[in-house]
Structures are given as structure tokens and as C-alpha cells.
User: Fold this.
Amino acid sequence: MDRKSRKCVSFPLRAFVLSLCFCLPFSVNSSEYKRKPVIFNFGDSNSDTGGYTAAFGLMFGVPNGRTFFHHPTGRLGDGRLMIDFLCESLNMNYLSPFLQSLGSNFTHGANFAISGSCTLPRNKPFSLAIQVLQFLQFKDRSLQLISRGYKDLVSDEEFNNAVYTIDIGQNDISSSLLTLPYALVIEMIPSFVAEIRSSVWALYEHGGRNFWIHNTGPLGCLPQVLAMIGKNATDYDSVGCLESRNNAAKQFNERLFSLCQELRSQMKDATIVHVDMYSIKFSVITNPSIYGFEDPLMACCGLGGPPYNYVPNHACAVPGYNMCDEDGPKHISWDGVHYAEAANAVFASKILSTNYSTPPLKFDYFCT
Assistant:
């Protein structure tokens, strides 16, 4: 699809995104559910709502947060993330980071995701294994406080009925491919997935019975990857993405899908939903005009202009950056690595459709 045809959008994106929001089940009052919706989230920057900032005291500054919150919130993006839209679909508060000491609300769960997190090495902060250990400490402390009369915390029954969302693995693959031979990284994929297996088992053994697991997206379509590696690459697909990077993501995803099947056979009383985020994201990247986007492989905020607007060490928020017009044509990528709020809204609508989930359960299944 050429640049000219991508501009032929018959309706403004702002109206489109608003229509998406009204189509999502945000009108349901959480008190009307059979059980209180509770989410415990584990992952990386795709779902970090402020954990990295709380952990290291480093704020992701302006222009992050410009679209919805109108100020930086610790999210890497211009506004809401997919996990925020999923919380909205249950009409519950956004998840507070576990490490956030002030202003937190843990009535409906907690967020253990930290930007930059991987599955390995498992003892390095803030790996998935460490996030799970933090959760176990959080659960133990919550139940202690409840026994002393504290209110507005998650009860033992609510811990058991909660949904445990996991979105991790992107950093394992991407960072490894920057320093290691491609074949070696592919050989490492089973070890990445094994860490997810161990973490799910740990949560299961401590009462978790509802798991919502995202696979990883098309890494070869990230503007950062294209800008850093594309000059020496020859394996572009018809869209302009790097097939080798996407194939690595696909191999990880195949292993993860098999893991979910394996766990279902072993955890007879658990529900394990696998969500194909790769297909969700790739469908938007390859058909941007349908969703009102332009330049699907170019960052909104960055440096360098077309084709990717990304220069290593001069990314978004570094002095000298440029930025797309908030009221102008929309970009899928916010900063070359993370997605813009408008894209996250579309991704969330596709998640909630159940068309990409195995089994095809609605996101609110655990509290109805």
C-alpha cells in the first residue's frame, strides 16, 4: 500500500477511536459483576503503569502522557496502554504499580510489570520470576493486614478468583538479537518460555486459577529495529518489516501457545486464555488506513524524520526530538518501540472481541 492510498481515510481517527471506546463494554458497573474484578499484571513496558518510575525514581518525561493524562504518568506512551483499556472494560480503577508508595489503590489488584523486564536472567530485577516473588509478598502482607481489620484490600477468595495477566518476552528476544547470533537466540527461546511456565505454576500453587497470557508482537515492524538494523538487512516483507525478526517472534509464540496447551492439560481446574497479540498488531500495521493510521512504520515522537523517525540515543523525550501533531494524522508507534494510545485502543478492542483468544472467552469471564 503506497503513501497516497494510506491518506484516503473516509473518517477522522479521533471519531473512530471514540467509537471504539463506546463499543467497548465500559458501561458495566463493577458492582454488578458476580465477583469483584481483580487483576494482577506481570510484564514489561507494554503494561507498565509506573513501576519503573517507582523503582528507580526516573520519570519518563514529557511528551509522554500528552494525550489522555496530559502529564507523564510513568507509562511509556502518549496515553493509555492496553492494560488500561482492559481495566476500563471492567469499569475498575487503573492498576497501581506494586512499588508505588503514594496514591496507590490496590482494591482491584496490582501491577508488577516493569519496563525493560525479561524472563532471563531470573535473578535480575525485575525479571518475571522476581515479579512473582513480589506478588507473593504482596499477597501475604495483604492477608495479614486484612486479619488486623484493614479495608479495601484483596481478600483470600478474591486472590483465588482474580485474573493473572502476563505479557512478557519481547525484551528477551529483542535484546538478545542485538548482541547474539540469530541461531543462538532461536535456541534460547525454549528457556524464555520455561520461565513463563515456572511463573504460572508458582501462581497456580498459591491459588491462582485464571490466567490471561499474551504472545509477543511483530518485532520486525518496530521503527527502532528497522532504523538500527534495517541498513544491513535484506529480508524485508511486502510491508517493510524485517522477516527474520518477525520469524523469531513467531517461534517464541509457537512455543508459548504449546505451553498454554500443556498447562491446560495439567491444571484441570484452571482457565488459561492465550491471546494472539502478534496477529492483532500485525493486522493493524498491514492495514493502517482501515483504522485511520498513516506511516505504520514511523514513530510519532523521535528524531530523523521519514522513514522511521528514530535515531539511536536520540529517541523521544531526548532534547531535539520532533513529534507528530496530536490533532493530525495518527501513528501506530509512539516512540519507535512502544505503541500510541490510538493503537492501544484498537488492540484492546480486538482483545475484547475474543476473535484472537484461545479459548474465545470474554475478558470478564473471571468475575461473571
